[in-house]
Write a structure and sequence with these properties.
248 residues, alpha/beta, Rossmann fold, two-stranded antiparallel ribbon, 8 helices, 13 strands, 33% helix, binds adenosine-5'-triphosphate, binds magnesium ion
Length: 248
């Protein structure tokens, strides 16, 4: 069976991905601070509604609506207009950070971790329905992850999140922090990499005396991918990937 792709529209990235993000799948965007995770995810949504007739939902666990909208206008993205046109919805999921440790739901009490996961999934589903979204971004999932100290519990929670997102049939990018950067080979694999359909890693690699921004598709189930790290640039036009150039 051939794979359908949701093109990112980011120059160079779709060819690196072998066509785009596999449609209806959940892909992890891992990156060091300032790597451009938010920019890449925003371009994926903005190109979705401007070029491919696909609405999008942006679920933010950290940045406020105003802050994100203002930052992205620097790249020519007008989320405010897209919101008016119902091509885009912004979900502020940051309140989950302030949930008390135990939450009462009727006569039951549930823990903060379970409640935050359930409420994020619930708001994503509602917003998808509002704009009939085909693309979803959750940025970043790091806060959800840090709540779990038990790896088995974390894996279960991530699988629940991925399963719920798969049910929506939307193509999903989950941004997450890269915990160890600078090394392409000897690095600890992060739990979210196991549960996602694929992973893209954005980091700066030391080359000689300088740092080169590199993007690597380290995993993409069912796809033939180029696993080499490739250089990318961030400019006022957005992100540009150079799929034929080498980092070293
Ligand atoms: N016009 C521009 N030219 C070059 N670089 C730019 C330009 N505008 C923004 N940048 C860079 O792009 C990056 C934007 O990163 P973005 O916020 O998307 O990263 P992030 O990975 O989401 O970061 P964080 O971990 O803080 O969430 C910053 O490193 C910034 O310096
Ligand atoms: Mg960010």
């Amino acid at each position: 069976m051939s794979t359908d792709f949701s093109e990112t529209g980011i120059p160079g990235l779709d060819s690196l991905l072998g066509g785009g993000i596999p449609s209806g799948r959940v892909v992890i965007v891992l990156g060091e601070p300032g790597a451009g995770k938010t920019t890449l995810c925003s371009l994926f949504l903005a190109n979705g509604y401007t070029k491919y007739n696909e609405s999008g939902v942006y679920v933010s666990l950290e940045e406020s609506r105003d802050h994100l909208f203002r930052e992205m206008t620097r790249f020519g993205i007008n989320f405010a207009q897209a919101e008016k046109d119902l091509h885009f919805a912004f979900v502020d999921a940051s309140p989950i950070r302030h949930i008390p440790n135990v939450v009462k739901a009727g006569s039951m009490t549930i823990g903060k971790k379970e409640f935050s996961l359930v409420s994020v999934i619930d708001s994503i589903k509602r917003s998808i329905a509002t704009v009939k979204a085909k693309r979803v971004v959750v940025d970043p999932i790091s806060y959800l992850i840090f709540q779990y100290s038990n790896p088995a519990e974390l894996r279960g929670a991530l699988l629940d999140l991925v399963e719920a997102l798969n049910e929506t049939k939307a193509t999903v990018l989950l941004a997450s922090e890269l915990r160890q950067s600078g090394s392409l080979v000897r690095r600890e694999i992060q739990m979210e990499e196991y549960v996602g359909h694929g992973t893209m890693i954005m980091q700066s690699i030391p080359v000689g005396k300088s740092l080169v921004r590199s993007i690597q598709v380290s995993k993409m189930r069912e796809c033939e991918i180029d696993r080499q790290p490739r250089p990318y640039r961030i400019t006022r036009d957005g992100i540009e990937v150079f799929p034929k150039e080498t980092v070293f």
